């Protein structure tokens, strides 16, 4: 059986809190042996579209986006074709469904911003796929996500949530076949792997990426508690 690794949560320079060029993402992903990636920039599919255009290798590119909801929660949309307008859970959910895309709940138990707490019981009942392994979560946060998914019979995927090229592939989803990736996810015929990046390394990357971004003042706008938490 093949073991094809895909990182299903990567941010590029098209996200306001990342500065990684698409070409660098493509090059590094191939270098570390990934079979595919999903570019999931904040509230846009521009990164995924550019990756599709620039990719000259057999690396599979999935177009996605991490969409911010009106209440501050977030959803991942995968296999997108058009931009998703921000809105309520069901407004975003319906737009992704209309494109035959997949809806994923990312980093549901991340400290200081528990994504799962942003959704109502009814909204959660519509979520069938959850990000169980996210490299920028703590091990305990990932364990909570996995336990929640198993308890509720949800499909688990893995993604790095990388905003810096060096962390691409730190968490991943494993497919057995390169064909019909969407179907494999929907049927739960996938596995996942990876690990959490240690707190000091997460903090170093967090500071570094903001200082190098086009608007370094983002580091001030970010909740300072996040930096303190990662240093503990």
Written description of the protein model:
- There is one protein chain.
- This protein has helices spanning 22-31, 46-54, 89-98, 121-124, 139-151, 181-186, 199-212, 218-221, 224-231, and strands spanning 4-10, 36-42, 60-68, 74-78, 102-104, 129-134, 155-159, 171-175, 191-194.
- The N and C termini lie far apart (42 Å).
- The chain has a 7-stranded mixed beta sheet. A two-stranded parallel sheet has the order 6-7.
- Helix 1 links the parallel strand 1 (4-10) and strand 2.
- Helix 7 (199-212) runs antiparallel to helix 9.
- The chain has one domain (4-198): TIM Barrel.
- Helix content is 34%, strand content 22%.
- The chain has 9 helices and 9 strands.
- The protein is an alpha/beta fold.
What is the total number of structural domains? 1
CATH fold type: TIM Barrel
Instruction: Say which CATH homologous superfamily is assigned.
Output: Metal-dependent hydrolases
Radius of gyration from the alpha-carbon trace, in angstroms: 16 Å
Q: How many H/I helices?
A: 9
The largest pleated sheet is described as: 7 strands, mixed
Count all strands and give the number. 9
Q: In terms of quaternary structure, what is this?
A: single chain
CATH architecture: Alpha-Beta Barrel
* Mean pLDDT over the full residue set: 90
At the first level of CATH, the class is Alpha Beta
Order of helices and strands: EHEHEEHEHEHEEHEHHH
Please give the share of residues in helix.
25-40%
Q: Proportion of β residues?
A: 15-25%
């Amino acid at each position: 059986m093949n073991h094809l690794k895909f990182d299903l949560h990567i941010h590029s320079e098209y996200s306001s809190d990342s500065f990684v060029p698409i070409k660098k993402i493509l090059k590094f992903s191939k270098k570390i042996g990934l079979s595919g990636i999903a570019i999931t920039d904040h509230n846009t599919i521009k990164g995924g579209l550019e990756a599709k255009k620039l990719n000259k290798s057999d690396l599979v590119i999935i177009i996605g986006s991490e969409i911010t909801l009106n209440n501050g929660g977030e959803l991942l949309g995968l296999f997108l074709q058009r931009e998703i307008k921000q809105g309520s859970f069901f407004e975003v959910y319906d737009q992704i469904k209309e494109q035959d895309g997949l809806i994923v709940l990312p980093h549901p138990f991340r400290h200081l911003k528990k994504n799962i707490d942003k959704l109502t019981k009814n909204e959660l009942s519509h979520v069938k796929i959850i990000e169980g392994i996210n490299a920028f979560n703590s091990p305990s946060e990932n364990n909570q996500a996995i336990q929640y998914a198993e308890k509720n019979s949800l499909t688990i995927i893995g993604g790095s949530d990388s905003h810096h090229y060096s962390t691409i592939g730190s968490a991943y989803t494993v497919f057995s076949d390169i064909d019909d990736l969407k179907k494999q996810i929907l049927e739960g015929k996938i596995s996942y792997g990876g690990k959490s990046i240690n707190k000091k390394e997460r903090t170093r990357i967090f500071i570094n990426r903001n200082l190098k971004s086009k608007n370094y003042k983002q580091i001030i706008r970010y909740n300072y508690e996040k930096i303190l938490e990662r240093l503990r």
